[in-house]
Design brief:
five-stranded parallel β-sheet; elongated; 294 residues; three-stranded mixed β-sheet; 2 domains; Rossmann fold; alpha/beta
Length: 294
């Protein structure tokens, strides 16, 4: 049995562990298994009883390049170095309701090996239990209906004002979650509608982390509605509730986009999941490649 040497530790060579490390590239599992088998054959052919972990990485890179996976080889090589970064990563994926934030965040987190992940709606839900309805009713409403709670005989419904009030409230929980991760040196993924550029102030924390912020956008209303129906599959969400509010959702989306433009945050048209993932991964890998090469 071949043993893998990593520092002062030794591990038996595991095809399962190696396959898992390659899945971060996004290559189909069928090819990943072929690459793992090829690596094992090369190790067997060399009759090596022990091998440095770095040598296995080189063999995988060689196999990926031979198959024409240049981008994927770069992903594989850089993502293996993430654990050695001098500062933790914080990745924030924002955007309006139903634009695919959770789906994209989950895939990116997997590819980067990030296990600490949360949605801003989850943070808001925790805050709801802590803050009574009568004290802060706007926190207990959906982002696209919060404006109704501020309406009275003297004040007309103001969707965006109400939304920003809710964002400002949830921002405290978001900042607390980020600060905890930075303090512990743990990579963090956050997604949610409340991650509005300019309203989440990370000025003090940025020096202690690698911060990546993206806003997902769907320009075509019909595509947006289809995405809302798609995300309801396999859940108890009532898509009609969101479709009925598509006008408000679209107005909030425009506001978030305007804030992203004003604050220089990347806006990604999420009309193709694979393209969106590739865009985000390329941006992150480009930044981290400069860091790990120093």
């Amino acid at each position: 049995m071949t043993e893998v040497i990593k520092g002062k530790k030794r591990y038996p060579f595991s095809k399962g562990i190696l396959a898992k490390s390659i899945t971060r590239t996004g290559i189909p599992m069928s090819e990943i298994y072929e690459i793992v088998e090829e690596v094992q054959r090369k190790l067997t052919g060399q009759s090596r009883q022990e091998v440095e972990s770095g040598s296995i990485k080189c063999l995988v890179s060689e196999c990926l390049l031979t198959r024409g996976y240049e981008t994927e080889e770069r992903y594989y090589r850089i993502t293996r170095e993430i654990k050695y970064l001098r500062k933790p990563m914080v990745i924030m994926i924002g955007g309006s309701t139903g634009v695919g934030k959770s789906t994209i965040a989950a895939d990116i987190a997997h590819r980067l090996g990030i296990t600490r992940s949360i949605g801003s709606d989850g943070i808001r839900e925790i805050m709801r239990y802590m803050v009574p309805y009568d004290f802060m009713p706007i926190l207990h409403e959906s982002s696209f209906t919060a404006g109704k709670r501020m309406e009275n005989p003297f004040v007309k419904e103001n969707l965006i004002f109400a939304f920003t009030q809710q964002v400002n409230s949830v921002a405290e929980g978001v900042l607390a979650f980020i600060k905890r991760g930075v303090t512990e040196g743990i990579h963090t993924m956050i997604n949610g509608i409340h991650l509005v550029p300019g309203l989440i102030d990370l000025t003090k924390e940025k020096k202690d982390m690698f911060c990546f912020h993206y806003i997902l956008h769907i320009s075509d209303v019909q595509n947006h509605i289809q995405q809302i129906y798609f995300r309801s599959e396999g859940s108890r969400r009532d898509p009609e509730r969101y479709v009925d509010q598509i006008k408000n959702i679209t107005e909030i989306q425009k506001f978030i986009k305007d804030m992203a433009l004003e604050n220089g945050v990347m806006i990604i048209e999420n009309d193709n999941i694979d393209k969106t993932i590739a865009t985000i991964m390329d941006d992150i890998i480009c930044t981290l490649e400069q860091e790990v090469s120093q």
